[in-house]
Amino acid sequence: MRLGTGRERARSEVVLYCRRMLAESLVDFTAGNISVRVDGEPGLYAVTPTGAPYDSLEAADVCLATIDGEVVAGRQKPTTEFPLHTLMYRRRPEVGAIVHTHSSGAMTMAALGWTLPPILTGFVAAAGGAVRTAPYARPGGARLADVTANALADRGACFLRHHGLLAIGATLHHAYNAASVTEGAAEVYLRARAFGPVPELPEDEVAWIAEVWREQWRGTGDGSPG
Fold first, then answer.
1. Which of 113, 89, 99, 88 has the alpha carbon at shortest distance from 163?
2. What is the spatial distance between Cα 167 and Cα 91, in angstroms, rounded to a whole number?
3. Residue 18: its pLDDT value, please?
4. In the beta sheet, which residues pair with residue 22?
5. Residue 30: what pLDDT?
6. CA dist., res. 145 & res. 138, Å (int)
7. From edge to edge, which strands make up the β-sheet containing 71-73?
8. What are residue 61's phi and psi, to 5 degrees?
């Protein structure tokens, strides 16, 4: 049966951003995962398969699944973080895409359990403010979605303790932007600490710049990222 154009587009978009993720060294080989809701079918989303090298990934490899956890298409099983994606979409109807990376700066912050403060304007515009570290939960388990709730409150990304980074967005463009820019800011922060305390933006400036990030959520329900 031929897939609808929205489904085809979602699968192709996942492939495109997986290759970008690999090219930017946000992951290595098969690490990390990406998903995006299917346009016109909010109860359905496209998600990366497990153990598939991104440089040879094809649209037909990308799984289609419902927010109730049923896989309806795909040549392979979905990512091991399938429960995380499913629960996130079910609980957060405003979220349109999820990007999970294993980049070096993010993993360093996650290993240390640190918060990345609002040190750069572009970072605040991409993620909404300081990025926190969520408590540890086993990879591949449903509890991972639970522990990210507070860390992702009014933010586009969080670090996963001893793991990596999770970014969300109204679209895959926004989620990927949050993941990519947060990684760059994390690397700057870690280097800058060698010279002493790292200055932060004033609170009023953070609030003003964060409106750029909040704009993506307009029209996604109540206009709030949760």
1. 113
2. 15
3. 97
4. none
5. 84
6. 11
7. 71-73, 63-66, 41-47, 33-38, 97-101, 164-169, 157-160, 133-134
8. -75, -25
* Type of residue found at 6: G
Check: CB of residue 165 under 8 Å from CB of residue 182. yes
- State residue 24 phi and psi, 5-degree precision: -90, 5
94 is catalytic: no
Helices (H) and strands (E) in the chain, counts: 7, 8
CA dihedral 130, 191, 174, 27 (to 10 degrees): -120
In whole angstroms, what is the distance from residue 15 CA to residue 116 CA? 29
Element (H, E) at 38: strand 33-38
Specify the CATH architecture of the domain 5-217.
3-Layer(aba) Sandwich (3.40)
For 185, phi and psi rounded to 5 degrees? Answer: -65, -35
> What mean pLDDT is reported for the chain?
94
Which residue of the set 81, 203, 205, 211 is catalytic? 81
Q: What is the pTM of this model?
A: 0.94
